[in-house]
C-alpha cells in the first residue's frame, strides 16, 4: 500500500467522522479532498480504499442502501459506518 492509499483511507475515516451518525459519503468526496484537480484519476484507488476499510470492518459499502462488495459493485456506491 502506498502513501496515496493510506491518505485515502484516512480521508474516508475523517469525512465519516464529520458526518452525523448513519450518514454516508461517496468515494469521490475522499478523492476530491486528496486531489481536487486530479480526483477522477484517484477514483479506482478511493474505491479500493473503501474496500480495504470494509474488509477491516471499519465501514460498509452500499449501493441503493444494501451492503455490497465494492470489488464487484458496478456504478456508484456510498460508504458509511457499520450499523
UniProtKB/TrEMBL annotation:
Classification via InterPro entries: DUF3253, WH-like_DNA-bd_sf, WH_DNA-bd_sf
SUPFAM superfamilies linked to this entry: Winged helix' DNA-binding domain (SSF46785)
Xref: Pfam families: DUF3253
Gene3D superfamilies: Winged helix-like DNA-binding domain superfamily/Winged helix DNA-binding domain (1.10.10.10)
Stretches of the chain forming a coiled coil according to its record: none
TM stretches of this protein: none
Protein name stated in the entry: S-adenosylmethionine tRNA ribosyltransferase
Organism this protein belongs to: Modestobacter marinus
